[in-house]
Amino acid sequence: MDIAIIGAGNIGATLARRLTGLGHRVSVANSRGPATLTDLAAETGATALPIAEVTTGADMVIVAIPESSISKLPSGVLDGISDGATVVDTGNYVPTLRDATIDDLERGTVESRWTEAHLGHAVIKAFNTIQAPELAARGKPAGAPGRIALPVAGDDGAAKARVIALVEQLGFDAIDGGGLDESWRQQPGTPVYTADLDAQAARAALAEATPQDTKAWRARLNARPT
To answer: From the CB of residue 210, how many other CB atoms can be counted at a distance below 10 Å?
Structure first.
């Protein structure tokens, strides 16, 4: 596939490395411009582009930037994507430590619904429950013991199937996290978040999640000394 990645931090750069290694054609952009991505491009073979150009013709766009940066993306950033393209949201709202306060999220709006509204395009939630070192190094063949499972949530069945297939290519068990309204079950603070569980345990963790999990996690962040 032609895959565009917006964001070259820990997750974005790791996905660029992994996906080019699988033979996908990857373009990448960040807020500081392509000149800051020359090392990553040289390492991976990915093409560094300005944000305004990176999604043109993409079959899949992976948005891997801090939540508070979503609203700062250029208007129409997804206008050039291919018909039927899939947009993946990897983001997590991390108030105090990283993100400015987002009132809608503090009031309980599902994080990916908020992102979807700002992007103006349906999204699939994935890759938000795993940290970059594990994403880089802990993929395993299908059926291998201890294979980490990653939940994938979204409303478009065909788009979700494409993301599930990509997760499996990367060496992880993809589990269906339900519709996008259910993606709160994989937000920070929930039992599945960064727990590196196998498929059976991850499904149980999604079922056990409560909205209070994320509220309590955010409260702990907000209580940290500044």
So the answer is: 13
